[in-house]
Write a structure and sequence with these properties.
It contains 9 helices and 12 strands. By secondary structure, it is an alpha/beta fold. It has 2 domains: 138 residues, Rossmann fold (3-Layer(aba) Sandwich), CATH 3.40.50; 117 residues, HUPs (Rossmann fold), CATH 3.40.50.
Amino acid sequence: MPFKNVLVALTSYAEPTSVASINDATAAAAAMGTHVAALCFEIHIALPGNLVSASLVGDIIADESHKSRDTAQCLLDAFEAAAKRLAVLHERILEKSLIPDASRVLVDYARVHDLTVLPAATPRWIAETIIFAAGRPTLVLPAAPPARAFELGTVAVAWNSSRASARAVADAMPVLKQARQVRVVTVVKADARDSKHSAEELAKSLARHGIDVVLDRVDANGRTVSEVLTDYTQSHDADLLVMGAYGHSRWREFVVGGTTKTLLSKPPLPVLFSH
């Protein structure tokens, strides 16, 4: 069973999502779900109350709001055109929001969708907010133009027997059932949480869901986990990487794990993150 309800998050301010990225994100969402909604914001900027030239600044802010509204409508038009070409059930959502409130509203929408798709060049702070606050999986698309149309041919799963990787597998079950091939990769000696037999037990569990997997153990050989996963997905021509997202709080500042941060900043392929 595919995801039923997929959200595509579009950015209208300050750097709008490109039409090419909208097309790629819509195609990915359509391949993974039966209904796709696109969310975009008309951004409003609050006027500081202590400005001397409040009238002039107010005119500038009003002009920026109008530009944001026009941009958001254009982005939603591009999404709708892409969705119609793909013949997928779709919905367009335009929200009005102040800049500080937009992330909260976006998370609210992500929480009521099965999956959120983030187009290429989505700011990392937006991606981190959704991944760690929504409680739902997030698909992050790479900046490089895709070499072929998005499909669920070979799906790689990064497994280290941690809570985050277990959650990622559970969240990705609709994808794993759709994929033609599933490969589970464990990076050896890179994470103390690795358990010698856990990948084999995972394979047994997935087999009971009708999912046959190929198990691989790759020695890091001094490489970072992100380097190993990048090399692995490229060598096996993977279409998608499934992995847990790691992060923790440190004195009120949320610190993102190194592998997660690297693959979020420059994903080499579509990555489905779960936390």
